[in-house]
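Exercise 7b. C-alpha cells:
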C-alpha cells in the first residue's frame, strides 16, 4: 500500500469512527452490555479457530528471532482467551457510568452546578505483541460509549484480524455500529504516523508497547497521549516485617511471570532484616535461575549465608557457568528487565527506600512489605507512583485484578488518568447547569 492509499485509508477510518462515536455516545446500557456478553460467547466458541490464527503469528515471530518475552506476550492460550471473555462479562455486569451527574450543588444565585460523565469520543490504540489487547481495548470502548481505532503490531496481525472480526460481529448482533471498533489492516508504520496526527477525528492516543514506540508517539502525536514508558517496579522489605510473607510475595512479584510491566525489577531490603531475609529469597531466586544484581552489602550477605551461591560463583569463574549473582551497576537501578533478572539493594530503612524508588522507578507500581502501620502510611503518601501497595505483590497492578473489567493500559502520567485505565479513564466530565429562569446581575 503506497503512502497516498495509507493516508486515504486512515482518514476513512477516522471519519467512520467519528460517526460511530456519536451513535455509541447515545447507545443504551442494555445494547452495550449485550455486545459485551455476545463477544464473550464468541471468544469461547472460537477458541480453537483463534489459536490457528495465533499459531501463524507465533511461527513467524520465532522465525524472525523475536525474544522469548515478546513471543510469550504473543500467545493466545485458552486461558488468555477465557480471561478476555471474563473481562467482557465483568464489564457487562458493571453499572453504566455514562450520563451520571456528580457533585450537583446549589449556588447562591439559585442555579445548580454539577458535572456529567461523558465518553471521550474516539481513541486510537497503538500496541505491540499482546493480541488480547484488541479485546481489552474493544470491550472498554464499547462499555464507555466510545469508538476506537486499533493498530496492533505486525507480529500479531493474523490474531488481531481474527479478534477484530469477532468484535464487529458482536457489535452487529447488538444493533450497534460495526465501525465503533476498527482495526488498521496494514502493518505499514506510516499508518501510525497518520493515526496520531488526526485531531479532527481522534481525541486521544493510547500507546502500549516498548519504550521506543511510546517515545515516538509522545514526540510526534498531534493529539493528547495517555502513556507509560516502562515498568521499573519495586518491592521493599521493611523492618519489621513477616519474613515468611515477604519471601512469598517477593518471589511472586518477580517470578510469577517475567514479561509483564508490573513484575518487580528491584528488591530493596531494610538493613535490620537483610540477614534473615536475603538468604531465603536468594535461595528461591537461585533455584529458579534468576540473576541477582546486587549492591556490595546485599552480595556479601548472600555469599556469606548461602553455600549454594558460593558454589555457583566458583563454577562461574572456572567453568563458564552463568552466575546467578553479580555486582549491580548504576544503570541497574533504572532497568526494566522483563526477564529473570532482579536488582537488589540494602537500605537503612523506609526513608531511604522511598528516596530510592522516587529517584529510580518509572512511577508505575511499588510495594512495601511491613508490620509497621506508620511505615505503611508513610510509603503510601510519599511514593510517587501510579499504584502503591502494602503487603502484596506488584503483579496485582492490572485492570482486571482491580475490578475494572479490563484495562486499556497503565498510565504513569498525572493528568486525566493514572494507573490502570478502565472505563472512567476513557471518559471526560462536562459541567451541567440547571436553573429556573435565574439571570446574572
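Sequence design result:
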Amino acid at each position: 500500500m503506497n503512502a497516498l492509499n495509507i493516508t486515504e485509508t486512515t482518514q476513512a477510518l477516522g471519519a467512520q469512527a467519528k460517526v460511530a462515536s456519536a451513535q455509541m455516545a447515545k447507545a443504551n446500557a442494555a445494547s452495550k452490555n449485550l455486545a459485551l456478553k455476545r463477544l464473550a460467547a464468541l471468544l469461547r466458541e472460537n477458541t480453537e479457530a483463534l489459536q490457528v490464527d495465533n499459531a501463524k503469528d507465533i511461527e513467524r515471530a520465532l522465525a524472525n528471532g523475536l525474544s522469548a518475552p515478546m513471543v510469550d506476550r504473543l500467545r493466545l492460550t485458552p486461558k488468555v482467551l477465557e480471561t478476555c471473555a471474563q473481562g467482557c462479562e465483568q464489564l457487562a455486569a458493571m453499572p453504566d457510568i455514562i450520563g451520571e451527574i456528580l457533585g450537583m450543588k446549589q449556588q447562591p444565585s439559585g442555579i445548580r452546578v454539577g458535572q456529567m460523565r461523558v465518553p471521550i469520543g474516539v481513541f486510537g490504540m497503538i500496541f505491540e505483541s499482546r493480541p488480547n489487547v484488541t479485546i481489552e481495548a474493544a470491550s472498554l470502548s464499547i462499555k464507555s460509549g466510545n469508538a476506537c481505532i486499533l493498530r496492533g503490531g505486525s507480529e500479531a496481525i493474523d490474531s488481531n484480524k481474527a479478534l477484530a472480526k469477532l468484535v464487529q460481529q458482536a457489535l452487529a448482533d447488538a444493533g450497534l455500529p460495526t465501525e465503533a471498533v476498527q482495526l488498521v489492516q496494514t502493518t505499514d508504520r506510516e499508518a501510525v504516523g497518520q493515526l496520531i496526527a488526526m485531531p479532527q477525528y481522534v481525541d486521544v492516543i493510547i500507546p502500549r508497547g516498548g519504550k521506543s514506540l511510546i517515545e515516538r508517539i509522545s514526540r510526534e502525536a498531534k493529539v493528547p497521549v495517555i502513556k507509560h514508558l516502562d515498568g521499573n517496579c519495586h518491592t521493599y522489605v521493611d523492618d519489621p516485617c513477616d519474613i515468611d510473607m515477604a519471601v512469598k510475595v517477593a518471589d511472586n512479584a518477580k517470578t510469577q511471570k517475567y514479561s509483564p510491566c508490573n513484575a518487580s525489577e528491584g528488591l530493596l531490603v531494610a538493613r535490620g532484616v537483610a540477614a534473615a531475609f536475603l538468604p531465603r529469597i536468594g535461595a528461591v531466586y537461585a533455584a529458579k535461575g534468576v540473576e541477582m544484581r546486587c549492591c556490595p552489602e546485599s552480595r556479601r550477605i548472600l555469599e556469606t549465608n548461602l553455600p549454594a551461591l558460593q558454589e555457583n560463583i566458583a563454577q562461574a569463574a572456572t567453568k563458564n557457568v552463568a552466575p546467578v549473582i553479580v555486582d549491580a551497576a548504576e544503570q541497574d537501578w533504572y532497568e526494566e528487565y522483563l526477564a529473570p533478572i532482579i536488582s537488589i539493594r540494602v537500605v537503612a530503612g523506609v526513608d531511604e527506600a522511598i528516596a530510592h524508588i522516587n529517584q529510580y522507578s518509572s512511577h508505575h507500581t511499588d510495594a512495601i512489605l511491613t508490620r509497621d502501620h506508620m511505615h505503611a502510611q508513610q510509603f503510601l503518601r510519599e511514593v510517587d507512583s501510579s499504584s502503591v501497595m502494602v503487603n502484596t505483590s506488584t503483579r496485582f497492578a492490572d485492570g482486571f485484578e482491580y475490578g475494572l473489567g479490563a484495562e486499556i493500559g497503565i498510565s504513569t502520567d498525572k493528568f486525566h488518568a493514572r494507573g490502570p485505565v478502565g472505563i472512567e479513564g476513557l471518559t471526560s466530565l462536562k459541567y451541567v447547569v440547571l436553573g429556573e429562569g435565574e439571570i446574572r446581575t
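Instructor comment: The chain has 15 helices and 16 strands. The radius of gyration is 24 Å.
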